[in-house]
Design the sequence.
């Protein structure tokens, strides 16, 4: 099984504050509380909120709702944060954003929050391929989930329980239909303990929602295993 991150590669900031000053990576202010990379002010004031929720679309059967916290804009802070999270080994950005997103979710969607507390869904961060995880050192969706469950305690699927092969082509510059074809059959069961959760709803968690092809492909796979209901949450929506 994978661990959430490569422990040996995470610097010990607590014991080396001179080498690793605890300041916001955007505005430079000294961080307080649980924040590790981004201050609360920048999250609340510089990221464009989607409120109260994005326009409803046509979802596959079993998808109860899909919510994103922020709007994804090119050349904006959210784009820079996503780039650092995925390509600059900035794991804690995902933790900070995940925690803030969970807190904002409680405020903006109190009925859905109560629904999650009643249903107690299993959090399933979107898996990435072994090659991509080895390159990054971690799965960014698990960093987001780590922050989320710090604010809204829920069970999380152990990383490596569902495996994913690499997509046929890069998802960035292809159409919605091409994305769906690109994601067909990419997931497989790697650990039968997934069936222990078969009677629970699922909360799929990812970084950015564009067409939904990645989340929907994962849900179709989980549904084929016998799961009945899912919710989708992403940090941002393009």
Sequence:
């Amino acid at each position: 099984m994978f661990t959430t991150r490569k422990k040996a590669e995470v610097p010990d900031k607590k014991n080396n504050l001179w080498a690793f000053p605890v300041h916001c990576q955007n505005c430079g202010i000294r961080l307080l509380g649980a924040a590790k990379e981004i201050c609360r002010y920048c999250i609340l004031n510089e990221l464009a909120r989607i409120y109260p929720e994005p326009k409803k679309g046509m979802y596959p059967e079993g998808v109860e709702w899909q919510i994103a916290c922020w709007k994804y804009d090119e050349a904006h802070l959210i784009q820079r944060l996503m780039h650092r999270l995925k390509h600059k080994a900035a794991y804690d950005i995902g933790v900070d954003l995940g925690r803030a997103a969970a807190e904002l979710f409680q405020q903006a969607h109190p009925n859905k929050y109560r629904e999650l507390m009643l249903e107690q869904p299993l959090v399933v961060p979107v898996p990435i391929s072994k090659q991509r995880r080895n390159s990054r050192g971690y799965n960014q969706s698990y960093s987001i989930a780590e922050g989320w469950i710090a604010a809204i305690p829920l069970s999380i699927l152990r990383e490596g329980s569902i495996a994913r092969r690499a997509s046929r082509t890069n998802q960035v510059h292809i159409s919605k239909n091409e994305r769906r074809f690109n994601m067909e059959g990419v997931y497989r069961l790697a650990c039968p303990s997934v069936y222990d959760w078969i009677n629970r709803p699922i909360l799929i968690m990812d970084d950015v929602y564009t067409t939904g092809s990645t989340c929907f492909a994962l849900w179709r796979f989980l549904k084929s295993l016998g799961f009945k209901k899912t919710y989708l949450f992403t940090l941002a929506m393009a």
User: Anything to note?
Assistant: The radius of gyration is 17 Å.
